[in-house]
């Protein structure tokens, strides 16, 4: 399910919507997440990002745009599609793109990122998006063979501070490094203005999740404003 170079080029300037719900939430259901993803596509999303094998499968049946899939295992350290086993399961569930932890941290199965990506290529042929937390991560991930670099983990690995909005400085640094692969802005993009700023900073495409697909958080934002 490898996306071609023209497929990746078609995502330039695109909005990618992440449809995920946390365990225990009412929306934590594959059919619901697929419906949310499909609604985002009606609104203009050119690709979607979903978590969990059942969600990936359901979403593939619900949309006609590229599906970025991931498998979260745990909540700390390397937990976004942490092993080759997880990655191959994500691809088998129907993801066009396998999103995984693209940091330089040790992986639970002992494989390097390069070995993991090679295993994905051999086992499924899926496109790989490396979720990175620093410029050094991005450089290493590109060298390991990642097809897409995301700023997803900026502020979550201890290498950079977690700021209130997207880490545009990191985005600009990765773009300036000219790694030869598209750079996807993701992480704490909560307003249309921030999404626009990410594109202006050089992002190939922008991923927005919480601000579009997470009602509990959105409700909290409004409530905080009313109570302040």
The CATH homologous superfamily is named Aldolase class I
Which CATH class applies here? Alpha Beta
Uncertain ranges: none
Shape: globular
Do you know the CATH topology? TIM Barrel
Instruction: Indicate the percent of residues in helices.
Output: 40-55%
Provide the domain count: 1
Span between termini? 49 Å
Kindly state the number of beta strands.
8
How much strand content do the residues show? 15-25%
Structural class by helix and strand composition: alpha/beta
* Strand line-up of the largest beta sheet: 1-2-3-4-5-6-7-8
| Multimer state | single chain
Secondary-structure element order, as H and E?
HEHEHEHEHEHEHEHEHH
Please give the radius of gyration in angstroms: 16 Å
Q: How many strands, what sense, and barrel or not for the largest sheet?
A: 8 strands, parallel, barrel
Q: Can you count the helices?
A: 10
CATH architecture: Alpha-Beta Barrel
Question: Average pLDDT, to the nearest integer?
Answer: 97
InterPro entries: Aldolase_TIM, NanE, RibuloseP-bd_barrel
Organism: Paeniglutamicibacter sulfureus
Enzyme class: isomerase
Keywords: Carbohydrate metabolism, Isomerase
